[in-house]
Automatic annotation (TrEMBL):
InterPro entries: PRA-CH, PRib_AMP_CycHydrolase_dom, PRib_AMP_CycHydrolase_sf. Pathway: Amino-acid biosynthesis; L-histidine biosynthesis; L-histidine from 5-phospho-alpha-D-ribose 1-diphosphate: step 2/9; Amino-acid biosynthesis; L-histidine biosynthesis; L-histidine from 5-phospho-alpha-D-ribose 1-diphosphate: step 3/9. In the C-terminal section; belongs to the PRA-PH family. Belongs to the PRA-CH family. This is Phosphoribosyl-AMP cyclohydrolase. One of its GO terms (biological process) is L-histidine biosynthetic process. Zn(2+) binds at C75, C92, C99. It comes from the Bacteria. The lineage of its organism: Bacteria, Pseudomonadati, Thermodesulfobacteriota, Desulfuromonadia, Desulfuromonadales.
Length: 125
């Protein structure tokens, strides 16, 4: 039986969030055992914020939630891939579809996306 190894990584493991239809990587966040259990129990993605030191459900403020369809772990059981249905279009807190919208080109980082919402308005910053 496979058991996720949270201790190897200091209690948190990376979670790669992927669109179930396109296989596009939407984001990467971190889970501890409680966040993984919340994700598996509720069918929504839950993470642990290292910066805010708290649990959060993706989309709880923006409405851009993620419905969990499949969950995989790697051979070392220290990383998960969660395939989701992205609700609301944007997975990134910047308002972009994916967190991976910046590409290295011609010796510089270039943004390749327009936000789908204004994060200052949504998050009241």
């Amino acid at each position: 039986m496979i058991k996720i190894d949270f201790e190897k990584m200091g209690g948190l493991i990376p979670a790669i969030i992927q669109d179930h239809e396109t296989n596009e990587i939407l984001m990467c966040a971190f889970l501890d055992e409680k966040a993984l259990n919340l994700t598996l129990e509720t069918g929504k993605t839950w993470f642990f914020s290292r910066r805010r030191n708290k649990y959060w459900m993706k989309g709880e403020q923006s409405g851009n939630t993620q419905d969990v369809l499949e969950v995989y772990t790697d051979c070392d059981a220290d990383t998960v891939v969660i395939k989701v249905k992205q609700n609301g279009g944007a997975a990134c807190h910047t308002g972009n579809r994916t967190c991976f919208y910046v590409k290295w080109e011609d010796n510089q980082w270039v943004e390749h996306s327009e936000p789908l919402f204004d994060p200052d308005e949504v998050y009241k910053k």
